[in-house]
Amino acid sequence: MNCAVLLVLTVWFGSQCGGNALSSSCPAPPSEWCSSMDTAIQCGVLKHCLLSNVTRSHQTENAVEVGLYYESLCPGCRLFLAEMLFPTWLLLNEIMSVSLVPYGNAKETPDGQKYVYECQHGEQECLGNMIETCLLNMTRMAFPIIFCMESSTDVIKSAQSCAALYSPQLNWDKVMGCVKGDVGNQLMHQNALMTEALNPPHNYVPWITINGAHTEDLQDKAMTSLFTLVCSMYKGTKPAACGGPQKTSYKTYCHNK
Ligand SMILES: *[C@@H]1O[C@H](CO)[C@@H](O)[C@H](O)[C@H]1NC(C)=O
Ligand SMILES: *[C@@H]1O[C@H](CO)[C@@H](O)[C@H](O)[C@H]1NC(C)=O
């Protein structure tokens, strides 16, 4: 995921002074640019792919883990995911990991080997939760896709085109197979178990955990400025985005003539 995000930024920077970011021989969509050395070279993004691969391998150890327990149609969840969590992650993905658990205030009832789910905002929400759960299981691009869905007018109707945008090689029929089948049902049960295991138990959503812990103070800080919270909780050397040492000077300008 880091790659694609970085690459989106690359395209943006590349276009700033009329530069040409994309070589015409680039054979792959942005989500695959870092998938191999060859593609990276053909698309003119090798340096960025190598860099982001390096940052990724540095990441895991002290990364601040942000957990979001939510449900797909809850307005507060959508707002937090789209306007706080995702933008923060774009800037700080080197030092934070995100874990999404779509379930929230749903209820499950065992029915033979399977479970029946009932959702706070009705059937459509159960469907949204299930699509997102399957995406999380099926593609590394799940977070951008879920961001795209949650920030669209219609979470469900946008799902397929959001997936096509960020993960063109993902087979939508397979996603729906998961959504309607036993795999999705079992994956949702895992979400139910994780949500029910929260300590303290959640009494609203979005419910946020930081490194697995939830306190009123952490929730409050996360809702106010997740960016500040993650920067302040990160134990390693602060990245440039947090005001740490900068690898490059950002002060370059395109002057008018
Ligand atoms: C980045 O890492 C992935 C997975 O480890 C690897 O397959 C890919 O070749 C790497 N890309 C580059 C450009 O080194
Ligand atoms: C997806 O779900 C399957 C079946 O439950 C599980 O074995 C697998 O580890 C999951 N993969 C990911 C990436 O979550």
Automatic annotation (TrEMBL):
Record's signal peptide: 1-21
Record-annotated Saposin A-type domain positions: 19-59
Cited InterPro entries: Interferon-induced_GILT (IPR004911), SAP_A (IPR003119)
Entry's EC annotation: 1.8.-.-
GO BP term, example: cell redox homeostasis
Keywords for the protein's UniProt record, in alphabetical order: Disulfide bond, Glycoprotein, Immunity, Lysosome, Oxidoreductase, Redox-active center, Secreted, Signal
Entry GO MF terms: oxidoreductase activity, acting on a sulfur group of donors, disulfide as acceptor; protein-disulfide reductase [NAD(P)H] activity
Keyword Ribonucleoprotein recorded: no
Location in or out of the cell: Secreted; Lysosome
GO cellular component: extracellular region; lysosome
Subunit structure: Dimer; disulfide-linked.
Function: Lysosomal thiol reductase that can reduce protein disulfide bonds. Facilitates the complete unfolding of proteins destined for lysosomal degradation. Plays an important role in antigen processing.
Stated family: Belongs to the GILT family.
Protein name stated in the entry: Gamma-interferon-inducible lysosomal thiol reductase
Annotated source species: Labrus bergylta (ballan wrasse)
